[in-house]
Amino acid sequence: MELLKYVRRRSFLSEVVYTVLNIALALAVVLVIRYTDSIALALALVLMSKWRVFAVRPRYWFANLRSNFVDVIVGVSVVMLLYTLNVANIDESRQLLLMGVVTMFYAAWLLLLKPRSQRSFMVVQAGIALALGVSTLFAISFNWPVSLVVIVMWVLGYSVANHVLSTYNDETHGLFLSILWGFIMAEIGWVAYHWTIAYSLPFVSTLLLPQVAIIAVLVSFVAYKAYDSFHHHQKIRTADIMLPLLFSLSIIAVLIFVFNSVGTAI
What we know:
9 helices; 2 domains; globular; 3 strands; mainly alpha
């Protein structure tokens, strides 16, 4: 009985420490951005938080990096978003409010969403990482060479596909499919590099949402539904993908044919 009490007490203490450290990380990132304007230091904090990736034998490092890359994508994107808000030409009260919202989102990501391992949560994690990653990439890459943009898009596509496919324990072609999806995202990135439309967000016109981020998420969602249908039924059933496909095509059509006229070319 004493042993059970000790185990429960230790488990509770571990949960408290875990919660405090993750909240401290989110606060540290926003404070560094706010008071030092140092992107490098904030990124260092995010990367240092992944020290456990390398706290094993070197042969496990690559596998750990693959499983943690979605979290790194979100962390890096949050840093860039906070920096953009910090230098935005808006009144200070709105600036602090928006930075607070982003910080709370990051804390919620670390505490509530990232630890979940059920497939539905993993799919949501991948979708958030893809949306934030692509948005951040096209926000900062306006003077990058196209080859670098294509490479980063490949990494984003590979990472989110691997994240979702890792939930299918009997999948033997996960590596190949992840690499393939990386190439598809790279192709989308190449096209978007030459003509990118972005939309201003409410409350802060300096933040732009690239059209390609929305398209990448919608295309990936349809691909996931098609794969999931094939995995369970050995064929892609029309009933499983019709609604996601129609929804995604409708949104993409509206973006391309209607909202392009009100977007901003970057």
